[in-house]
Amino acid sequence: xxxxxxxxxxxxxxxxxxxxxxxxVPVILNFVYSFTNWNAIRMTSEVAKFVGWDNYVEIxxxxxxxxxxxxxxxxxxxxxxxxxxxxFLLALGLNEGLKTRNILRAxxxxxxxxxxxxxxLIFGSIFMENGFANQLLMALGMENVTKAWLTTKDTxxxxxxxxxxxxxxxxxxxxxLAGLQLIDKSYYEAAAVDGxxxxxxxxxxxxxxxxxxxxxNLLLALSQELKAFDIVFVLTGGGxxxxxxxxxxx
Length: 250
What we know:
One of its GO terms (biological process) is transmembrane transport. This protein has 250 residues and is mainly α.
């Protein structure tokens, strides 16, 4: 038993060392350097000097930076919520019953495999002033609603969020599908025998068993959207007038 524990330690040690060197140490160094005047862009031979909380005070006095941070958090929260809600509903609908469910699963998952550059170029043309979106609105008699969606300050960020949700919702759907298929069907059969309806089965069987999938999806989505760059850069470049500028674009 003792030898088995030793072997487990040996196998885990390389991963721990790599993780420590590539993550823990840089995080600690970043925190230490944040209290100095060290500049990674304009590096000189001078020794970094301790400046206390000056850097943090400067950050929280910078209104432009605070606006970008707030916009990034808003972008991450909105896209995360909608991706998970829509992804879960799609997973419920495509879990069983439909004969074409495998084809539909592939169709919804396909955008997650495409390059953000390609998606950005496609939707950039769709939402331009003479693009498909406005052509469709005019065909429906809604000419007064048409606009340049990605170059108008009020609509640029919501439109970018829409594209990001469309791009990633299939990925969330697949994780929820995996969670749904792990639920033992006997639970639903027993609930049906006891007289439970579909709503009760959803709230008392499905949702509690989907908690691991929900946590995974939330963590992955939040971490991904807080560092979003590529799709926003291709669609708007951070414009117009910084309306879609996120923290990774500064």
